[in-house]
Amino acid sequence: MINKKIKLLIIAGPTASGKTALGVELARRLDGEVISADSMQIYKGLDITTAKPSQEEMQGIPHHLISIIDRSQNFSVSDYAVLANQKIQEISARGKLPIMVGGTGLYIDSVVNGLQFAPEAEEDSSLRQELLAKAASEGNQKLYQQLQALDPEACEKIHVNNTVRLVRALEVCLRTGKTFTEYKKQNLPAESPYEAVQLGLNYESRQDLYDRINLRVYKMLEAGMLEEVRQAYQQGNIGTASAAIGYKELIPYLENQDSLLNCTAMIQQESRRYAKRQLTWFRRNAQISWLILSKNDELQEISEKAEKTIAKSGILCYNK
Description:
The chain is an alpha/beta fold and 320 residues long. Helices cover 52% and strands 11% of the residues. It has a 6-stranded parallel sheet with strand order 3-2-4-1-5-6, sandwiched between helices.
């Protein structure tokens, strides 16, 4: 008997590109459920800061892997892969289409490519906390230099400001005695466990994307992001979730060391830089079919473009 692969739809792209709205619309059209592929939305709290979809935005479509981990806990890509694969199986078993939506490329790749994580490279809580503390006290540059000495090839693919990936790479190097690059190559499967269609969102004008990012930061502040960050900061013990853009940038204001205007500009700048890194990551994936948008495109038009691209792939978006 032929073992038919589960069909999976991916919607990837940079922050503020419209992934959430498209994911909901395609789930409505294709009878699907959404699985978040966002490394920060997995945590409880910081709802506004991490741009979690509201109940209104979800429009009754089930969303999974959002707000399921306490923000004081650490959470690794291997943890995500286990949970995401479980959800894909469950959604497919219900006769629905699993739709992964998010901008964390490492999370998406770990699932789509069926990465297997060796036991010796699993999360070491004490080591991870030690590395995070070092980043907080001495800066990411120290971690970057340490990783450069251990695995220069990995350093070429990890930005110095990406604390989560720096810590993960160092954790693997220090625990296994292997380079992070070697570890990843050893854990690549022969083929994907899914029959996946991967869509990527981007804008024909980089400035249009940046304008969307800048506007969203203002809307997040209007929605209460400052108070949300203040409460989290006062409660402390926030762990890996402190890497969320918007949290660390507002701390100087909370400590009366900078103005809200300057901190807002910093959030916008870091968000734009993050979008650039996301695009660099996703462009390396030859399996992604890109939807190039303009600022005047409406959701219905974008959804129709997406459905045409899905149809061209030859992969039916139903498990029947």
